[in-house]
Design brief:
The chain is of the alpha+beta class. It has three helices and two strands.
Length: about 140
């Protein structure tokens, strides 16, 4: 009896595969936002995966006094309790990790303790891949 039930389940599973192709022209997706109802009909390829500089190579700054760009992903968690950037960039770990230590201008003591204004690194420092397309034209000269 068990073999008959198993065979019946296999036959049922195979019969469910009708061989039909997926619809390559999906229906538009409707998005409701503060800007109103929008229909998204365009299908475009995904963005290229970011390409970051090789280790030890900094990204050139666009203007004087620009905060250095982050030459790697920047999705490390920063909360009141823990700053993920410090797992590599704290003064006591930076040389072991071959990372740039936190700047002296960002700390309040000789132990490298971050001051409150510089605790959330990504408010000034942003990741920048080498192949990232600029969102807008920038004529900023830093003056």
């Amino acid at each position: 009896m068990k073999k008959i039930l198993t065979l019946a389940a296999i036959v049922l599973a195979i019969s469910g595969c009708s061989g039909q192709q997926a619809d390559t022209n999906p229906a538009p997706v409707n998005i409701k936002s503060l800007g109103g109802q929008t229909e998204i009909t365009e299908i475009r390829p995904a963005d290229a995966m970011p390409v970051y500089p090789s280790r030890g190579k900094a990204i050139e700054r666009s203007f004087a006094d620009q905060p250095p760009l982050i030459p790697h992903k920047d999705d490390y968690q920063i909360t009141i309790a823990k700053n993920g950037c410090l797992s590599c960039h704290s003064w006591d770990k930076a040389s072991r990790m071959k990372a740039t230590p936190v700047a002296k201008s960002h700390v309040i003591d000789d132990k490298g303790t971050l001051n409150g204004q510089n605790y959330f690194c990504t408010q000034c420092h942003v990741a920048q891949a080498e192949n990232k397309i600029p969102l807008v034209e920038n004529q900023h000269t830093g003056q």
